[in-house]
Amino acid sequence: MKTLEDGALKVVKFGPLGAFANNAYIVADTQSKEAVIIDMPAQSAKVLTAVEQGGYRVKAVLLTHGHQDHWADYKLVKETTQAPVIAHADEDGIPADRVDARLADDEEVTVGPFALKTIHTPGHTPGHACYAIDRFLFSGDALFPGGPGRTRSPEDLQQSIKSITSRLYHLPDDTEVLPGHGDDTTIGQSKKEYAVFESKEHPADLCGDVTWEGS
């Protein structure tokens, strides 16, 4: 568990969780005690324990995307929090009856006086969404240290690159990137790594597990 704070805004990172080493997050306003949970992988009981210990009121569970490892503990989290599960309007990987509301690009979810902005970042999945608040970006499987999330086709990779460069790289360089698996990075560091990728030629069929500096 890792805690990041900026004034009354508190972010708690949990991971690795479950067989796929997922991360999950609590984003909370320590004054109002409002909070959201981002993703609900296996072993989310650890997240729920921290919610209870912090005295937080979970107003929503935000999904970055519909791959099952990111909502494996749906039943536990939903029954415990009774909070609406929210995903981007284009995301269809999770059964429709498990999504209570849909977000559009740039739509916001508030946590006390703070606002999480939805950033539609298709590529890894059609309805993948990142969430930006203050100096933090919850990037799901869109962006990791070293490169983008896994893609299934060259077209998906090009879409991921477009999403990252046109939507995420406009954020300040010191924005902390908090992904759906593994370690954190910053927008500034990622942009430096991408410059290496951009400087090279690549095969037309490039996709899968791509890294900015190694592919």
Structural commentary:
This protein has 215 residues and is α/β, with parallel strands linked by helices. The chain has one domain: Metallo-beta-lactamase, Chain A (4-Layer Sandwich). It has a 7-stranded mixed sheet with strand order 1-2-3-4-5-6-7, covered by helices on one side. The chain has a 6-stranded mixed sheet with strand order 8-9-10-11-14-15. The radius of gyration is 16 Å and the shape is globular.
Strand content: 25-35%
CATH class: Alpha Beta
Please give the count of helices: 4
Unreliable sequence segments: none
Q: Averaging pLDDT over every residue, what do you get?
A: 98
CATH superfamily placement = Ribonuclease Z/Hydroxyacylglutathione hydrolase-like
Succession of helices and strands = EEEEHEHEEEEEEEEHEEH
Whole-number tally of structural domains: 1
Shape: globular
CA radius of gyration: 16 Å
What is the correct CATH architecture? 4-Layer Sandwich
Helix content: 10-25%
Could you say which structural class the secondary elements and strand pairing correspond to? Answer: alpha/beta
Cα(first) to Cα(last) distance is 32 Å
* CATH fold descriptor: Metallo-beta-lactamase, Chain A
Count of strand segments: 15
Please give the largest β-sheet.
7 strands, mixed
Strand order of the largest sheet: 1-2-3-4-5-6-7
